[in-house]
Design brief:
single chain, alpha/beta, 8 strands, about 10% strand
């Protein structure tokens, strides 16, 4: 059921038919997303960037290219001392829950499944946290906090999209939890928010529709509002000291990605949204601008050619070894 509702919600966004192969024009964009980018802010940065940590992209690429390199086994052996908590992103249940098939039976959803199977094969404890991903950040922060507290071991958090915001809020709300966290890796988390959420929030009818759909899925419209660029910017400002304290105590590595156009191809499912942002000079994964995915003060890796979902489930158009990606990022966190 959530799969169907998720499709309805996404289908209410700018339709594919509105975009040419070259994307929307600036004029079309201004009609589609009025006010999404303040007039006094450069188009490529629809939010105020704050201090960043170190760019570790080159180090990541070295590890990804040589997964059996020196120190590999020793570092991964350390992982057995911890429990890995996977925190899913917004609308994740549509990919996790079994999907009924027209001819009978069902197809199991895939979300972090490859990473979990790999951890199981090497004897590492893990848990994919069950939550209403459509709930507000504060509601899900309590779920993440409970999972951290319940673990007999210190934890390593791997979070996707909104799951990174839920995890951050858990540590900000209860700073004592940081002592139980060995490291955090976030995939494509919109720390500064997403223009996609802005689009929904600023259109009354679409906002009301989103609210009804999210409520029927067990969540609230607050989850969408939480992802808006204005709210995220205010949150980062308000909690700057707490965030600095977390990044000083816990190794945090953020993964930011973008996917440029491939002329003549419908290369990703969220191509219309990606193209809208590109017309404003904003590189994104189709949902999250690449700069938005870097937590202030945290080290980061930036990769091109990846859309918003390929890091957690297979894509028909984008090849990616998700195990090697996750392994390299974990090695970087555990080596600190």
């Amino acid at each position: 059921m959530k799969t169907i509702l998720s499709i309805l919600l996404l289908s209410a966004l700018p339709p594919a038919c509105a975009c040419s192969e070259e994307g929307l024009s600036i004029e079309q964009l201004s009609e589609a997303v009025p006010g999404a980018v303040p007039a006094d802010v450069p188009a490529a940065v629809p939010f105020r960037l704050k201090s960043q940590g170190a760019d570790l992209t080159a180090a990541y690429k070295t590890l990804y290219a040589d997964p059996g390199g020196s120190g590999d086994a020793a570092i991964l052996e350390k992982l057995k001392n911890y429990k890995v908590l996977f925190v899913p992103g917004f609308l994740a249940e549509a990919s996790i829950e079994p999907i009924p098939l027209p001819w009978g039976g069902e197809r199991k959803g895939k979300y972090f499944d490859e990473q979990m199977d790999w951890l199981k094969s090497i004897g590492v404890d893990y848990q994919r946290i069950e939550m209403e991903s459509e709930a507000s950040i504060q509601a899900n922060a309590r779920v993440v906090a409970a999972a951290i507290s319940a673990s007999a071991k210190r934890v390593v958090i791997i979070a996707h999209s909104k799951g990174g915001l839920d995890s951050l809020a858990a540590l900000i709300t209860d700073s004592a939890l940081a002592a139980k966290v060995r490291g955090i890796v976030t995939f494509q988390t919109p720390y500064y928010g997403s223009p996609v959420a802005d689009y929904v929030i600023m259109h009354r009818l679409l906002s009301e529709l989103a609210g009804r759909l999210l409520s029927s899925m067990g969540g609230t419209k607050a989850a969408m509002v939480n992802l808006g660029t204005a709210e995220r910017d205010e949150y980062l400002e308000k909690n700057a000291s707490a965030i600095a304290g977390i990044t000083a105590l816990v190794p945090v590595l953020t993964l930011a990605t973008w996917k440029d156009r491939e002329p003549g191809k419908f290369d990703i499912a969220l191509k219309p949204l990606r193209d809208i942002m590109l017309e404003q000079g904003i590189r994104s994964d189709g949902v999250v601008p690449v700069d938005s995915a870097v937590l202030p003060g945290a080290d980061f890796v930036k990769l091109d050619g990846l859309d918003h979902s390929v890091t957690v489930r297979a894509s028909r158009t984008i090849p990616l070894d998700r195990i090697r990606l996750t392994k390299a990022l974990l090695m970087m966190v555990l080596s600190r």
